[in-house]
Design goal:
406 residues, alpha/beta, Lyase, Ornithine Decarboxylase, Chain A, domain 1, eight-stranded parallel β-barrel, 18 strands, lyase, amino-acid biosynthesis
Length: 406
């Protein structure tokens, strides 16, 4: 996409605005499948928590993707978007047995990540195909909040609890068809990924009826020019060779599953916001925009970096700005960032806004959530309208008049 296209979309649909480039999503999907083309049975399950708009789900479904879901609501969205139940993978954390049973009744693949629920579910439903999430105790990820495979993580069943796990499976006669792991996000060193994969291979030897191994995801994408990223091609070459060798050892051709979210949609996303005010203080020049962490919380939550451009005047002389929001708390998107000279009314574009951006948006300060647009075949298609005051009031129930006047 060109800057002029983004400016036009901001004028057409208003700001703040999320824009997603369909072509980039498609190219990332194709890049991943090509990297693992040596694997006969490969399945990509899009981790929809990254961006769950139904139009995005439909786009990926048309490409052949399955879905990775973490809640019953995501399962329902996937079904609504046209996915067949057997294309949906459900990996919850800390949910009730009742929710798992409700999802199971929909025909979705269940992935269980704790011994208590595993034993309860296996006792009641021994014939249901189940996947088990293993915690490999491998520290990986760009931030403590997105590192989920370490020893203190709430996610998964500890690899050190395998004997207990196997005993539950043997006692209940459960049908274990898959083993799963996910170490965290923003993995740079593919050797760490390969090391964790070996732990999964060793765990898999304890189960004789497996159909697939799910390696999660967590591939790092570049956040700025010349930024480093996961070398998918090298990982594909090395892991494919090792996976195929394991299948030979196991005596059966298994399916290799990945569940990328950020890798598929992050770079496709742009967040557009208008500059309300340029404010000079004794030490800082603030560019205050018509948004805040209610729309894009990642810089405040994870310390994530989003490259910011002044797409209204991209050729202007660069100056240092702190880009801040309009929320009644400190919501700083960038400190002393070099950006082409900003004037009030300019449109700023935040890169890498496709993953965990709109999906983590809120109505804090009673602000509306922004619209979403899909850029496809040279046109902008509105896939979510801007919220209105009616949306804020929806589901709120005022006190009866008799109560307020008594």
């Amino acid at each position: 996409m060109q800057s002029k296209d983004l400016v036009q979309l901001a004028e057409q649909f208003g700001s703040p605005l999320y824009v997603y480039d369909a072509e980039k999503i498609q190219s990332q999907y194709n890049r991943l499948t090509k990297a693992f083309s040596k694997v006969n049975k490969l399945r990509i399950n899009y981790a929809m928590k990254a961006l769950s708009n139904v139009a995005i789900l439909q786009l990926l479904r048309e490409m052949g993707s399955g879905l990775d879901t973490v809640s019953i609501q995501e399962v329902l969205l996937g079904l609504h978007a046209g996915y067949e139940p057997d294309k949906i993978f459900y990996t919850p954390n800390g949910v009730s047995l009742e929710e798992i049973e409700e999802v199971n009744a929909m025909g979705v693949q269940i992935n269980i990540d704790n011994l208590s629920i595993l034993e309860q579910f296996g006792t009641k439903h021994p014939n249901v195909p189940v996947c088990i999430r293993i915690n490999p105790h491998v520290m990986a990820g760009g931030n403590a909040n997105i590192s989920v495979g370490h020893i203190d993580s709430k996610f998964g069943i500890s690899v050190h609890q395998l004997p207990h796990l196997v005993r539950i499976v043997e006692n209940t006669k459960m049908n274990i068809v898959g083993i799963h792991m996910h170490t965290g996000s923003d993995i740079l060193d593919i050797e760490v990924f390969l090391y964790a994969a070996e732990i999964l291979f060793d765990a898999a030897k304890n189960f004789k009826n497996l159909e697939f191994l799910d390696f999660g995801s967590g591939f790092k994408v570049p956040y700025k020019k010349d930024d480093i990223e996961t070398n998918i091609e090298e990982l594909g070459k090395k892991l494919s060779k090792r996976f195929n060798a394991f299948c030979t050892e196991y005596g059966k051709e298994l399916t290799l599953i990945f569940e990328p979210g950020k890798f598929l949609v992050s770079e496709a996303g742009f967040f557009l916001a208008k500059v309300n005010v340029v404010k000079q203080t004794t030490s800082t020049v603030f560019a205050g925009i018509d948004s805040g962490f209610n729309h894009l919380i990642r810089p405040m939550f994870y310390g994530s970096q989003h490259h910011i451009e002044n797409i209204s005047h991209p050729k202007g002389k660069e100056r240092f700005y702190s880009v801040v929001g309009y929320i009644c708390e400190t919501d700083t998107f960038a400190n002393n960032r070099k950006i082409a000279e900003i004037k009030e009314g300019d449109i700023l574009s935040f890169r890498n806004a496709g993953a965990y951006c709109f999906s983590m948006a809120s109505n804090y300060n009673s602000r509306y959530k922004p619209a979403e647009v899909l850029w496809m075949n040279g046109e902008g298609h509105l896939i979510r309208a801007h919220e209105t005051f009616e949306d804020i009031l929806k589901n709120q129930i005022p006190l009866p008049v008799a109560v307020t006047t008594s």
